[in-house]
Design brief:
The chain has about 200 residues and is an alpha+beta fold. It is globular. The termini are close together.
Length: about 200
């Protein structure tokens, strides 16, 4: 499906509106979180996948991809990425940018390192909600990229035949299924798709 060409001004306006909308959606969803879903102890840790696909990946390729993924900046925001005129995908992004070429990894709690800017908590929550809806995981939506979130990301990577490293980055983002959001109707899609 061909996407419509948008001017730089339109893209900037969409990014600004999307940032506000994703923040509002995230804030509203966290207010309506059930006590069971909010408790980190509510969901058992999924078992790490050990399919033959994981074992067939060469050590050098895994090390190179891990190094490349770790070199990306941490996702410190979330934005609505337009898919067409009606729908968009809320996804983790770089703070104050339209770029979604960033990563989230084990230990992001929510910040990585000593820099304290942006809102990585929202980025992680957006990812966790999408994993819960599209992949049936039962993650606590807590804004912490811990063992459970890493294990589910590994399962998703295995399912989509990616290097299984537990790091959410551009390759994982592009392979994943996402739930769409409509700004026009302020509603969520009933199913997930992979429109990227």
């Amino acid at each position: 499906m061909a996407l419509p060409k948008l001017s730089g001004r339109t893209i900037a306006l969409l990014a600004a509106v999307a940032a506000v909308a994703v923040g509002a959606v995230a804030a509203n969803a966290s207010k309506h979180e059930s006590p069971a879903a909010a408790s980190p102890a509510a969901a058992p840790a999924p078992k790490a996948s050990t399919t033959p696909t994981d074992q067939d990946v060469s050590h050098d390729a895994t090390a190179a991809e891990l190094k490349a993924a770790a070199a990306l900046p941490q996702c410190r925001s979330a934005r609505l990425v337009p898919v067409n005129r009606s729908w968009g995908i809320p996804m983790p992004s770089i703070y104050a940018s339209t770029s979604t070429t960033c990563n989230l990894m084990y230990g992001d709690d929510p910040y990585r390192g000593s820099n304290r800017y942006g809102d990585p908590d929202t980025a992680i929550r957006v990812l966790q909600r999408n994993l819960n809806f599209c992949y049936g995981s039962k993650l606590a939506v807590d804004g912490i990229y811990g063992n459970n979130t890493r294990a589910v990301v590994k399962q998703v990577q295995s399912k989509h035949h990616l290097v299984v490293d537990g790091i959410y980055g551009p390759k994982t983002r592009s392979a994943m299924n996402w739930r769409l959001y409509s700004m026009a109707t302020r509603s969520w899609s009933r199913s997930c798709s992979s429109p990227l």
